[in-house]
Amino acid sequence: MKEKQAFLKTDTLAEIPKSQRGEMLSALEAFVGPEIPTRANGFEKLLEANAHRRSPLVAAIMARQIDEPDIHLRSRIVEALAAVLRPEPEDAKSPEDVRLWLRHVLGQMRQREIFAVLQVIATSPELIDPVCDILNACSFSGEALVRILANRKVDINIRIAAAKAIGKIGFLDAGPDLRRIQERLMSRKAGQMEMAFAPTPDEEAEDLLPVVSEALQLLEGGID
After folding, report:
1. Is 2 exposed, middle or buried (0-12, 13-18, 19+ CB in 10 A)?
2. Separation between Cα atoms, residue 157 and residue 71, nearest integer Å
3. Is the pTM higher than 0.85?
4. How far apart are the C-alpha atoms of 89 and 137, rounded to whole Å?
5. pLDDT exceeds cutoff 50 at 18
C-alpha cells in the first residue's frame, strides 16, 4: 500500500511551496509587464520553476495571455499550456485544480484569442498539435474556426490553419460548412480552368481547396 501511495505522489507534481511563492509572484509580475523582453524573462522564470504546471494561478494567468502580441512568445505559451493539458507519458501530471483552472480560462476564449492561436500554426506549422490541444479545450472553437475559414477577408494562411485544426480536432458539426466551402472552391477552380487566358491563379481555390478537402476526409473518417 505504501509503495502504491509513493507512486501516486511521484505521478502528480507537487504544488509550489509557500517559500517559493514570492519569487513566483515576481515572475508573474514580469510576465504581464508592458515590454516584450520583460514578459519573456518572466515567462522563462515561470517555466524554469514549472510554475504553470504546479500553480492554478500561474496556469490561469498564462492562459489569459494566449493572445500575447509577440508571436514567438505566444508560441511558447501555447506549448507550455498544452503540456499541462497533455503531458508526455514520462512526465508527471499537474494537480487537478491546475488543470481545472486552465480549462476554465481556455473555455472562455472567443474569436480574437482563437485567431491568435491560429497564427501560431500559420507561422510554425510544426506546432499544430499543441495548438489543437488548446483549441480543443474550448467548446466555442469549432464555431469560431468555421467563421474564420469562411471569411474571405482573412489572410489565406490563417484560413488554411483553421481548416487543418478543424480536421485534426474532429469538429464533426463543421462538416456541412466545410462541404459548402469545398463546393464553392471547386466551382471557382473549374470556372478558372475554362478560362484559357486567366490572368492569375485563384489563390483561394488553389491553396485552400486541398486543405478543406483533407479536413472533410478526416471528419468523414471520424464519423465512420
Report:
1. exposed
2. 15
3. yes
4. 20
5. yes
